[in-house]
Amino acid sequence: MVSNSSFIINEAQIQGILSKQRPISALETRDILAKALGFKGLDLFDVAALMTVTDKELLEEIFHAAAEVKKEIYGKRLVIFAPLYISNFCNNECLYCAFRAKNKELQRRALTQPEIAAEVKCLIEQGQKRILLVAGESYTGEGLQYVFDAIDTVYSVKSEHGEIRRVNVNVAPLTLEEFKKLKDAAIGTYQLFQETYHRDTYKEMHVAGKKADYDWRLTAIDRAMEAGIDDIGIGILFGLADPRFDVLALLQHIAHLNDKFGIGPHTISIPRLEPALGSSLASAPPYLVSDDEFCKIIAILRLAIPYTGIILSTRETSDFRRRAFSLGISQISAGSRTNPGGYGDVEKNSSVASQFSLGDHRLLDEVVRDVVEFGFMPSFCTACYRSGRTGEEFMALAKSGKIKNVCTPNALVSFQEYLQYYASPKTLEAGEKLIARELSSLPENQKQLVEKLLAKVRGGEGDVCV
Ligand code: SAM
Ligand code: SF4
User: How far is the centre of ligand 1, averaged over its atoms, from the C-alpha of 134 (Å)?
Assistant: First the structure.
C-alpha cells in the first residue's frame, strides 16, 4: 500500500507558482491563447496566469478560444448520461455530503437487485444508454459483491427498444485486487473525485471513515490503472479549497498519469458544492465559486487539457448549463435523481434521501430539446467503449483531434435512435431539423456513410455505429 502520495501532488510547486503570479497583460493573455489554439494544452504557469484575467473583453477571448478547442476536438456533440444511485449507506464523514454516516436526518436505502432493475427499466424507457452507478462507501452485508451484482443487473435489463450500453462507476477507492474484479465487470469509466487536492483542507473536510485517508484516495487511480482499467475519470469538488490550487493540482495529477501510464483521464468532473440535507458546510462553502469564476475555470480547463471530456452535472441550473455548453463541456447528466429509487418511485423517494440539491430538475426530453436549440448535438453514443477504443487508442484519437470523425457520425446516429423511440413530438421535430442541418454540412464521404447508418436505424436496427 502506498502511504504517501506526494510524488503525485507537489504542493510547494503550486504554492510557489501562485505566490509569484501577478495579473497578466492583454498581450500575455493573447500569447497563451495562441498557444492553446495549437490544441496541445497548457502548462501550470499558463493556467495560473490565465486565472488572473478579470477584464471582460479578455475573458470573452478566453471563452471563444475554449469553444474553438471543443469544436476542433469533439465537434458539436454533447454526450448524455444519467446517474443511478443504488445505496446511500456510508461509513464516512464527509462534512459536505448528506450520505455521511452521522447524518440522522437522511432516510437510508440500499436498492435490492430487482429494485435496481426497475430503476434501469425507467432509465431505458426515457431513452438513456449510459449510466453512472453511484454508491456511498458501505455495502451492507454483501460487501463489494453488491456493486458487482448491481453492474450485472444493469447490463441484464432489456426493454422494448433498448438497453443500457455502458455502465460507468463512481464508488470509493478499491484495492488492486478489487479493481481487477471491477475491470472484469466490463465497466466503462471508473470515476473518482479527489474532492480537494489540498491536504490540510482535505483533512478538515473528511473527518472519519476510510475516506479520511488522503493518500489512499489519491493513489486509487494508479491502482485502477495498474489493474487494467484504462478509462478513468477524476474531478474536483469546487467550494472546499482555493480553486486555483485545485486546478493546478488536477493538472499535476494528470501529468503524473501521463508520465506513468502514457494516458490521461478520459473525463474530468467539476461539481460545485450544493446544499445537502444535514450539512451546514454545503450551504456555506468555504470557497464559494461564483458563476463567472466557474465559467472561467471551465474554459481554462478546456484549453489546458483539450483531449479530455469535461462533465457538468444537474447540480447546476439549466441557465448555467446553457452558458457552459459553449465553454467546452462535452458530457452532461440529464433527468437525474440522486436518491436511490428516485426514477421509479417518485412519491416514496423525496428529496430527503437525496445526496444534494439538484439545480436542473427537467426531464431528459426537455434537456435534449434545449441542447438542440442551443446548437449542440445530443449524443447517446457508447461506440468507443463497445468497440474497444479505450485507453491509448482513444487518447491517440482524441489528442490528434480525430475523435470527432467518429463522434459526429455516432452522435447523429445515436440521436436518431433516441428521437424515433423516445422523443416528444416537439423534440422529434427539432431533432430531425438538426440532423438534416448537420448532415448537409458534412464532407461528401462522411455524409454518405452517415446516411447509410441513419437508414439502418430508421429501418429498426439498434446500436448502429462506426
Ligand atoms: N462515496 C463515493 C465517494 O465519495 O467517492 C462515491 C459517491 S459520492 C456520492 C460522489 C460525489 O458526490 C463525491 O465524490 C462528491 O464530489 C459529490 N458530492 C458529495 N456531496 C456533495 C454536495 N453537497 N454537492 C455537490 N456534490 C457533492
Ligand atoms: Fe460517503 Fe461519498 Fe458522501 Fe463521502 S461523498 S459521505 S464517501 S457518499
Answer: 9
Expressed in angstroms, the distance from the first to the final Cα of the chain is 41
Distance from the CA of 162 to the center of ligand 1, in angstroms?
A: 29
Of the candidates 276, 240, 271, 237, the one whose C-alpha atom is nearest the C-alpha of residue 357 is 276
* pLDDT confidence of residue 253: 98
- CATH superfamily, domain at 71-384: Aldolase class I (3.20.20.70)
Assess whether pLDDT exceeds 90 at residue 72.
no
For residue 250, the model assigns a pLDDT of 98
Q: What phi and psi values does residue 299 have, to the nearest 5 degrees? A: -65, -40
Residue 214's φ and ψ, nearest 5 degrees, are: -55, -45
Domain ranges of the chain: 71-384, 402-458
- Return the C-alpha torsion angle 375, 376, 378, 382, nearest 10: 150
Could you read off the pLDDT of 184-214 as tens digits, one per residue?
999 999 999 999 999 999 999 999 999 999 9
CA of 100 to the centre of ligand 2 (A): 6
Task: Enumerate residues 6+ apart whose C-beta is below 8 A from 135.
Answer: 85, 86, 87, 88, 147, 150, 170, 171
Mean pLDDT to the nearest integer, 403-422? 89
Substitution candidate for ligand 1 out of 170, 221, 277, 320 with most atoms within 8 A of CB: 170
Q: How far is Cα 125 from Cα 175, in angstroms, rounded to an integer?
A: 35
CB atoms within 10 A of CB 140: 10
> Of the candidates 268, 237, 239, which has an alpha carbon nearest to the alpha carbon of residue 251?
268
- Closest residue by Cα to atom 6, ligand 2, is 100
Across-strand partners of 134?
Answer: 85, 170
Greater confidence (130 vs 321) lies with 130
Percentage of the chain surpassing pLDDT 90? 78
- Counting ligand 2 atoms within 8 A of each CB, the residue from 94, 171, 192, 313 with the most, and so the one to mutate, is 94
CA of 49 to the centre of ligand 1 (A): 30
**CA dist., res. 26 & res. 31, Å (int):** 9
Around ligand 2, the residues with Cβ closer than 6 Å are 90, 92, 94, 97, 99-100, 136-137, 172, 211
What's the gap in Å between 446 CA and the centre of ligand 1? 41
Higher pLDDT, 211 or 160: 211
**Could you tell me how far CA 144 lies from the centroid of its own chain?**
23
